[in-house]
Write a structure and sequence with these properties.
By secondary structure, the protein is of the alpha/beta class. The strands form two sheets. Strands 1, 2, 3, 4, 5, 6, 7, 8 and 9 form a nine-stranded mixed beta sheet that branches. Helices cover 39% and strands 21% of the residues. Bound molecules: adenosine-5'-triphosphate (ATP) and magnesium ion. The site of adenosine-5'-triphosphate has 20 residues, from helix 5 and strand 11. The site of adenosine-5'-triphosphate (ATP) has 20 residues, from helix 5 and strand 11.
């Protein structure tokens, strides 16, 4: 008897003439997620089987595979020879100790001596005999024992379907640059876009020493979480310290965030184009904070020349975003209380609905190009 992991994918995404391409990328992504763990992955009748691993690694494999986009459900199963005795031994192992159950059998091997209902009845009967705390309930069972009798003389026995990440395999929908702060929103935005198959990389702006090293570490930690979904993650880090100092020195303080956002967008587009990223992604959500009005977005968007800016959270409430961040595992990191550069030199009364003519007037007091080049010179890159 051997433990294996069954992977089912959301087949709907993989159909059509690009099917082979999607499946290839999907398989490569699964291999990447299991790097360093001994295993083999085989494709079999519309699903994949992970085999040949150490039994203790089963949970680790499941936790990694569940994060690969394209995975619909995952089950840990026992692989046994297709004999009633061996199937029964496995069924006992996946059975709960108490409660109601039913047995569901799928028989691909039509030469097997019993048909599906007969197998279910036989195994169910033996389970009842072996454990008086079990009862059959075919309508609303507490748990289901699934038996797959396959054509190759082996059967798979399991009782749980765990949900996978769904979505499309990362790498099938181009590349994008995520503006990642240490906050709750941007990691969720990145996850949503990666889920649609886009490989993302990150760009973080800091203002060290006004912002501290813990703030920087927080972004590294968030990037490491995203990396598991994104099959790796490149984090670009740029200092905007000098930009903020110059704005503070020369401009009306109420425009700090508005002006800073325009610098961020310009720098993002330059880095994106250098790296072959096809869009910029932000965690903005309409009306969430003072800088996230449509006027604020107009002002920061106006400096972008070529690329689309994706704002997947625009229509989400904060609670919805928090729910997602908990699910993907970024929430606990995001709520650590370290300052983001946007709160450095924060004015008491930021401009909420900036008029573009006023923004341009303030910006004219700065050497925009020189400051961008200085900022780009601070670029560091970390691979997660
Ligand atoms: P988040 O929770 O992602 O920090 P937020 O609600 O704090 O978002 P803002 O501070 O207005 O909102 O930032 C809006 C978006 O701008 C962020 O979601 C992110 O995409 C980008 N952004 C903000 N600060 C930074 C930063 N320091 N580095 C990179 N991108 C940033
Ligand atoms: Mg923030």
């Amino acid at each position: 008897m051997e433990k294996v992991v069954i992977i089912r994918y959301a087949e709907i995404h993989l159909k059509g003439k690009n099917r082979g391409y999607f499946e290839h990328i999907f398989a490569v992504n699964m291999e990447k997620s299991l790097k360093g763990i001994r295993h083999e992955i085989h494709r079999q009748s519309g699903r994949y089987l992970v085999e040949g691993f150490k039994e203790n690694d089963a949970d680790l494999i499941v936790s990694k595979i569940k994060k690969v986009f394209g995975v619909h459900t995952v089950s840990v199963a026992y692989k046994v020879n297709s004999t009633l005795d061996d199937i029964f031994e496995a069924a006992k192992l996946v059975s709960e100790d108490y409660g109601t159950f039913k047995v569901e059998t799928h028989r691909a091997d039509k030469k097997f001596l019993l048909n599906s209902p007969q197998i279910s009845a036989e195994i169910g009967g033996r389970l009842l005999e072996s454990n008086p705390n079990l009862k059959v309930n075919v309508h609303e069972p507490d748990f289901i024992i699934n038996i797959d009798v396959r054509e190759n003389g082996t059967s798979l026995v399991f009782n749980k379907f765990e949900s996978g990440a769904d979505g499309m395999p990362v790498g099938t929908a181009g590349k994008g640059l995520l503006l990642i702060s240490g906050g709750i929103d941007s990691p969720v935005a990145g996850h949503m876009i990666a889920k649609r198959g886009m490989k993302i990389e990150g760009l973080h702006f800091h203002s060290y020493p006004y912002t501290n090293m813990q703030a920087r570490q927080k972004v590294n930690d968030l990037s490491a979480v995203l990396s598991e979904y994104n099959c790796g993650f490149t984090l670009n880090v740029v200092s905007v310290k000098k930009i903020q100092e110059e704005i503070h020195k020369n401009c009306n303080g109420a425009y700090m965030v508005t002006l800073l956002r325009r610098f961020m967008m310009r720098i993002a587009e330059i880095i994106a184009e250098r790296n072959g990223d096809q869009c910029i992604i932000t965690g903005e959500s309409l009306g969430q904070v003072a800088s996230q009005t449509v006027e604020g977005m107009t002002s920061s968007n106006a400096v972008i020349k070529n690329l689309p800016v994706l704002r997947p959270l625009c229509g989400f409430d904060k609670n919805e975003i928090i729910d997602r961040s908990r699910k993907i595992g970024t929430y606990e990191i995001s709520i650590q209380p370290y300052e983001d550069c946007c709160t450095v030199f924060l004015p008491d009364y930021p401009i909420i609905k900036p008029k573009i003519s006023d923004v341009l007037q303030e910006e004219a007091k700065l050497d925009v190009e020189g400051l961008i080049n200085d900022a780009l010179a601070t670029l560091e890159t970390v691979e997660m």
